[in-house]
Structure formats: structure tokens, C-alpha cells
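dumping this here so i dont lose it
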């Protein structure tokens, strides 16, 4: 098999950023899901604010935002394109598009520290501030906060997702013991995507990715989804939100039984990714990215069609499975002449196969 595509999502639940190469680190590809949006809700001016996590499943309008990364400038650019609006014959054409640039590594000194939570896993993040929040609030039509998870800080992996708990019922051991003095670590971090400095975080913590640093899918399984759709429709791999897309699997959904894969950047070195659990799917597969709503007609049927025969995880028997969650193995050493860099076209081998499908467990996720 080979790597066909690589993706990151700087802001969780916004559109994918394709890459030609990326550095594998214990917490995921650099800049992947280090930012997240929250809806601010208050009953009155004097009441305490409540932060509601925003994911595309519950806020399909998030599909209207594209992201582009410029590593040379240390920025990523957001473009919000509202759904097409009716206009009269004499009105000038205007798609209402607006653009915002955000630093990939913000200056943290003046930013408000804030406690947030995703799927019961807490994090200490930074409020990106009024100018950025106002832009998002105007796009959505309600008050929004963008938060950033600084380098050196992660969320705890719960349930049986982490490699050290995938075969048992214990939650992962506490990660990032220095979390109580979390802000002090920021001054010691010098971001460098080519060197993969994020790999210095020797733990199984995660960013704002749902459950694991990596999500691996195959083109063969995606082709099976396309075959389920009416002729002329093609399944969009980015709606499955993978980090690594492989091609050359022997059959669709063969990955259900994979326990680990090895990526070979050069002939003498392999980088191992442990695949611990299945990825359970939801209605986000059915979103129309041009309207920011759930799709009408065939585009809105993907989840339903997978429900027919892909509810194969006994731990989540009411939801279909597509793809495997992965963690960088801790035995990778120097990872060869390229370090942790992988590129499209790299060879990939299955290094471990399970006799049975694993059973997903994350407390509170059903």
C-alpha cells in the first residue's frame, strides 16, 4: 500500500487542509486541531457565560469555512463563503466571501487562559481575543470564541483508546504532569515543523482531535461508499476527516482488523502507528459544504447507507464504523534519514492484524 493523501484541520470541524508531506509526532501532525470554536451563551449580562463546543455535526454551518496553511509565513487563512443567496437581475454578483488570517503559533502573553472540555476530556486553552472572535461571531450570527491549545499541552485520552489501555478497561494514565504549571512550558517551545519538535511531548495526550492523534482510512473503503450512492455521486473523503488516506488495500474495510501499520519513508526505517479502535460515524457525513446544511437528496444519505451493514463495533452497535484511530508508537527512535517526515507515495505495510474487531469505549460517547 501507499499513502495517497494527508490532511490536517487547524480549527476543529472546519474544512480540511491537504498536505504533500507532514511530520508524525505523538500528538498528531503539527497544527492539526490546535484550535476550536465555542458558542458563548449567557442568560443575561450579569450571568455566567457557558461555552458550548462547536462541531460540524451540530453546527453544519462550519462546513462553509475553508482553511489554507502558509508555513513560510506562519499563518493560516480562513475563508467564509455564505450559501448562495437569491439576487435580482440588476444586482452585482457578490458571494459575500470574507477572509481572516490567524497565526499558527499565537503570541500567548496577552491571551486569556480558559478551561474547556471536549468529550469529557478537559484542557487549558487560550482565548484568541476580540478581533478574531468578532469575525467568527459575525459569520455565524451568534457570539463565538476561538480557543487555542498551546504547544506542550494536551487533553487526556479516555476509555480504551490509548495504546496502554486498548486491551483493558482502565483510563489512560495522567498525561502532561506539568499541566498545573502549564503556561511555563510555552517559553521553552520553539516551533519548527520540519524538525517535528512537537514530538518532544512524550505522552499519549491529544489536541482537539476527538479521540486520537491520527485517523487512518483507505481508498478502497471510500470506493465502497461511492458504490452505495446513486450513479454520478462520489463520496468525499474529507467528510470522514482522515489524517492519512491509504490506497492499495486488498479489500474494502480490511482495516477493521488492523492493529498497527508501518510507514517506510526509506528502505531501512519504519515508522509505526498503533491502531487501537474503530472510528464511529455520525451525521457529519451528510453535510452539504456549499449550503452549510444537511444535504438534500443523495448527499444526505451517506450515514443511512452505512448503517445497513457497517454497525460492526459491539461497543457502539448503533453507529457505523469507518477508519481506525491511531497513535505513534513509542519505539520509533530516530525514524530514519527523514526523521518523522512522511510524504504522499510512501510505502505502508500492515504490521499487526487482530483476530477480532476491537470494541470502542470512551465514557459518555454513544
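and the seq i came up w/
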Amino acid at each position: 500500500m501507499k499513502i495517497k493523501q494527508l490532511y490536517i484541520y487547524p480549527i476543529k470541524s472546519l474544512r480540511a487542509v491537504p498536505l504533500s508531506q507532514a511530520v508524525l509526532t505523538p500528538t498528531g501532525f503539527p497544527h492539526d486541531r490546535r484550535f476550536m470554536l465555542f458558542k458563548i451563551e449567557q442568560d443575561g449580562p450579569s450571568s455566567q457565560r457557558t461555552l458550548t463546543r462547536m462541531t460540524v455535526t451540530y453546527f453544519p454551518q462550519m462546513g462553509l469555512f475553508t482553511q489554507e496553511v502558509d508555513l513560510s509565513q506562519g499563518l493560516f487563512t480562513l475563508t467564509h463563503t455564505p450559501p448562495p443567496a437569491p439576487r435580482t437581475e440588476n444586482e452585482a454578483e457578490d458571494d459575500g466571501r470574507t477572509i481572516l488570517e490567524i497565526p499558527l503559533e499565537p503570541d500567548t502573553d496577552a491571551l486569556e487562559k480558559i478551561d474547556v472540555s471536549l468529550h469529557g476530556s478537559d484542557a487549558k486553552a487560550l482565548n484568541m481575543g476580540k478581533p478574531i472572535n468578532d469575525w467568527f461571531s459575525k459569520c455565524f450570527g451568534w457570539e463565538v470564541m476561538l480557543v487555542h491549545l498551546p504547544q506542550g499541552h494536551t487533553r487526556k485520552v479516555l476509555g480504551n483508546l490509548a495504546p496502554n489501555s486498548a486491551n483493558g478497561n482502565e483510563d489512560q494514565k495522567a498525561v502532561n504532569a506539568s499541566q498545573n504549571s502549564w503556561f511555563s512550558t510555552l517559553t521553552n517551545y520553539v516551533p519548527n515543523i520540519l524538525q517535528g519538535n512537537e514530538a518532544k511531548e512524550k505522552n499519549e495526550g491529544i489536541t482537539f482531535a476527538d479521540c486520537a492523534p491520527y485517523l487512518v482510512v483507505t481508498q478502497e473503503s471510500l470506493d465502497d461508499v461511492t458504490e452505495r450512492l446513486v450513479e454520478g455521486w462520489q463520496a468525499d473523503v474529507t467528510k470522514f476527516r482522515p489524517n492519512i488516506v491509504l490506497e492499495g488495500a486488498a479489500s474494502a474495510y480490511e482495516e477493521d482488523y488492523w492493529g498497527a501499520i508501518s510507514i517506510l519513508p526509506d528502505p531501512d526505517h519504519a515508522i509505526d502507528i498503533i491502531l487501537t479502535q474503530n472510528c464511529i460515524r455520525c451525521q457529519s457525513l451528510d453535510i452539504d459544504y456549499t449550503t452549510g446544511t444537511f444535504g438534500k437528496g443523495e448527499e444526505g444519505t451517506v450515514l443511512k447507507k452505512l448503517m445497513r451493514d457497517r454497525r460492526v463495533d459491539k461497543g457502539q452497535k448503533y453507529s457505523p464504523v469507518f477508519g481506525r484511530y491511531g497513535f505513534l508508537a513509542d519505539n520509533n527512535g530516530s525514524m530514519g534519514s527523514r526523521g518523522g517526515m512522511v510524504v504522499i507515495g510512501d510505502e505502508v505495510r500492515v504490521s499487526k492484524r487482530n483476530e477480532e474487531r476491537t470494541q470502542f469505549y470512551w465514557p459518555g460517547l454513544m
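The chain has a mean pLDDT of 88.
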